[in-house]
Amino acid sequence: MREARLNPGLTRLRWLIVAGYAIAVAWLSLEPALGRELGSMDKSAHFATYLTFAVVAYIATRNNRQYLLACLLVMLFSIVLEFTQKMVPGRTFSLLDMRANGVGVLAGMSVALLVGRQRTRRLLVFLAPSSSYQLPPASGKPLPAEAGRDGAETP
């Protein structure tokens, strides 16, 4: 399947979204008071957080091989955060949290792969409409050449 053309700015934007999400997850995971506030919803929060993380990673990657690597890194990230919580007052290490994180990543992978790359990237086009991102046609035929600024065809 032919990969859609992306401008470098959009590629950076996709990875900035992933990095921003990772920073938010790390901050929330290491916030001392938050662990007590979640109570019985703790495992659901872990599941939903990492399901979303897997979908965000899917949008940022260009192919399934990159996506698998990204999801493995998300799992490693969750394990490191869980062990780091042992050192934060008011937070504890939990194998059940790690399991909820892993199940969330697997569920996110399933959702992303079922929905498909084209539909998940439409969300990114919606969020960044000024980009020069082009979706491949559904027919699988090559994209027409883009018109340059001077009106000439560019490859």
Summarize the helices and strands and which ones pair or pack:
Layout lengths: L7 H23 L3 H5 L3 H19 L3 H21 L10 H21 L1 H11 L18 E2 L5 E2 L1
Antiparallel strand pairs: 1-2
Structure in words:
By secondary structure, the protein is mainly alpha-helical. It has six helices and two strands; from the N terminus they run ααααααββ. The protein has helices spanning 8-30, 34-38, 42-60, 64-84, 95-115, 117-127; strands spanning 146-147, 153-154. A two-stranded antiparallel sheet has the order 1-2. Strand 1 (146-147) and strand 2 form a beta hairpin. Helix 3 (42-60) packs antiparallel against helix 4, helix 3 (42-60) crosses helix 5 (95-115) and helix 4 (64-84) packs antiparallel against helix 5.
Instruction: List SSEs in N-to-C order.
Output: HHHHHHEE
Structural class: mainly alpha
Shape: globular
Average per-residue pLDDT, rounded, comes to 78
Largest sheet: 2 strands, antiparallel
Detail the poorly predicted runs: 145-155
Proportion of residues in extended strands: under 5%
Radius of gyration: 19 Å
